[in-house]
Amino acid sequence: MLIQRLLAEGDPAYEQEFFFSTRRGTRILNLSDFRDATRNDSWDFSAFVRAYALYLDERLEYKIQDRREAKPYKTTSTKDEEREEETNDKENASKTSHFRDMKTEQIFTTLQHLQQLLERFLACRPTGAAKCHRVVTVALYQIVEESFQLYYDITEILKIYIDRFTELDIAESINAYDIFCRQGKQLDELDNFYSWCKTAGIGQTSAYPEIEKITQKKLHLIDELVRDKKSAAQQIEDGLPKAEPEAVENVNAVHVEI
C-alpha cells in the first residue's frame, strides 16, 4: 500500500525509479512467486498480493508510456507541481479530445493497454479468507477508485471506435469486433466486482459508475457492420456499385444501443 500511495501521490521521480528498477530486475513490483508460508490460510492472501503487485506494475507502465507520448519527462519544482495540480481538472476534461485526436492505430494500442490494466484490476478481487480482511479492503479502496476513470476512458474509446467504424478497413473492423467481444466479458466481470465491493463497504455506493454492458444485440449489430464491409468490398472487386446506406444505418443503430 505504501508503494501504491507513492505512485499515486508522490513525486514523479518515484515512478521513474520504480519503473526502471523493476525493469533492471529489482524485486519491487515483481512478486510473481510471492508466497507467505507462515499460515495455513495464507494462499488467499498471497494470491491477492501477487495480483495487486501486477496491477501496480501495469498501471505504472501505462502512466510512463502515456507521459512519454504526451511530453518528455522532466522533474518539476514544488511551485510547478502546485500549478500542475491546479490544472488537473482541466486536463481530465480535455482527455476526451485527447483520445479523439489520436489516430486509429494509437486508439487501438491505447485500448489494448487499458484492457490489460482492467484485466489486472479484475484479478485483484480477493478470495477466501482475504475477502474479509481489513488490510485487503483498505488496499482495494484506492485502486477501486482508480478503476472508475479506467472504465470511463475505455467507454469513451469504444464510442470513438463506433464513430470511426465506416472509416475502418476490413481488418481493422474485425479487430474492433474482437475488442468489443473482449470488453463485453470484462464489463460483466467489472459489474460483478463492483457489486461485491459495494456489499463489502469499499467506498461510497453513489460514487460507482453505472456499467453500460455490451449486450449480444450490440455485438450482433457490429458483426453485421463487418459483414456489410466485406460485402461492399466484394461488390467493388466484382465491379458492382457499393451499397453504403445500409452500413450507415447499422452504425446509427449501434450508436443508439451504446
UniProtKB/TrEMBL annotation:
Residues 71-81 have a biased composition (Basic and acidic residues). Keywords: Cytoplasmic vesicle, Golgi apparatus. PROSITE patterns: ENTH. Residues 71-97 are annotated as: Disordered. The keyword Amino-acid biosynthesis does not apply. It comes from the Eukaryota. GO terms for molecular function: 1-phosphatidylinositol binding; clathrin heavy chain binding; phosphatidylinositol-4,5-bisphosphate binding; SNARE binding. InterPro entries: ANTH_dom, ANTH_dom_sf, AP180-like, ENTH, ENTH_VHS. GO terms for biological process: clathrin coat assembly; clathrin-dependent endocytosis; vesicle budding from membrane. One of its GO terms (cellular component) is clathrin-coated pit. It is found in: Cytoplasmic vesicle, Clathrin-coated vesicle; Golgi apparatus. Residues 1-70 form the ENTH domain. Transmembrane segments: none annotated. Pfam families: ANTH (PF07651). PANTHER family: CLATHRIN ASSEMBLY PROTEIN, OS05G0426100 PROTEIN. This is Clathrin assembly protein. It comes from Hibiscus syriacus (Rose of Sharon).
